[in-house]
């Protein structure tokens, strides 16, 4: 008596009666379908967010949030640039580097790589390569000792271990009486790292900054300065602000520009996966259409009586929209609760399944990670729940419109 008529009758039709259990069963399956679709969407997108986060952290563990280099040639006033960059409130770390393409050789084993000269005492400010050392440590790089740290895959390719010698050949040449000869230097392998990204484990080598500058004939200059920020998503803005602060001409880039294609591909993959999985919710919404069509057919007499009592077509339409929307709302809420619970406890559940059934979902030797990552984004939950609810509301329009067009005389002719 205290509820709006449309809401009261719509909720009453949602409950089962003795003569329409089949319709109630279809309503229940529609509700379960929406719930499973929302759970699948939240869980899968959380897993994709977790993988993207792992990849991003591994890339930025070796790369940098932002990089300052000279417009041409080497960066000579790099100490001044570091001081100016340090004054920015979002810059939490800075370190110089000297980088170039080289060829590493050990007997018949040869491979190209990026040779990066670093200062062992400053490098931990901008990268976490020191946390991924398999053998040795960053402090083993001493100036003048010509020691080198390489990735694990590169070490396997060259067939070297700590203590072995590798020859580093640079593109620069030295003029001799016999002609132009490439510059090369023998380095001692001091350590091996493994960050889990083939780009670096297979193609990166670290030496002391002083040795790299001498090998590349940079003198007192460096290739540039690498920066670490307190919020990596501010890198484009901070880069522009630093470009305006620094005197002279410099080239400033950030991680979003350096790996734009890769991260764009990841974003596109997540977007397409969300669209594909949303078809589960769409199928459940179609079940709501069939459910309401059968309800409308079953309730022809009730609709005719309500019309003769003065109910308007708009009220009849609202009654069946309430019924369908209730099914969708309950399914969406159950799906949100289940999806959030599953996404937050996915690692524990996967570990239990692996331990119980003796299987490995992720082989650490292949994927470099042994746990299924999950990173729940509340923005994804909001978009999924809103999209599922809108689908269910749209699914109620046609059956409700059909019910509103029911003519009382036609419906009661054979009653």
Which characteristics define this entry?
415 residues, alpha+beta, 2 domains, six-stranded mixed beta barrel, 10 strands, 53% helix, 20% strand
Give a brief outline of the structure:
By secondary structure, the chain is α+β, with helices and mostly antiparallel strands.
Please, could you describe this protein's structure?
The structure is a single chain. This protein has 16 helices and ten strands. The protein has helices spanning 5-14, 21-62, 78-86, 152-158, 198-201, 209-216, 235-245, 255-258, 260-298, 300-308, 313-344, 346-357, 364-367, 378-395, 397-404, 408-411; strands spanning 66-70, 91-106, 109-118, 133-135, 147-151, 165-176, 179-193, 204-208, 224-229, 250-254. A hairpin with a 2-residue loop joins β6 and β7. α1 (5-14) crosses α11, α9 (260-298) runs parallel beside α14 and α11 (313-344) packs antiparallel against α15 (397-404).
Question: Helical residue percent?
Answer: 40-55%
Give unreliable regions as ranges.
Answer: none
Mean pLDDT: 82
- Number of helix segments? 16
* Coarse structural class: alpha+beta
Helix and strand string, N-terminal first?
A: HHEHEEEEHEEHEHEHEHHHHHHHHH
- Largest β-sheet summary: 6 strands, mixed, barrel
In total, the number of domains comes to 2
Q: How are the strands of the biggest sheet laid out side by side?
A: 2-3-8-5-7-6
The rough form would be described as elongated
Task: Work out the strand percent.
Answer: 15-25%
Care to count the β-strands? 10
Assembly state of the chains shown: single chain
Terminal CA distance? 28 Å
Radius of gyration: 32 Å
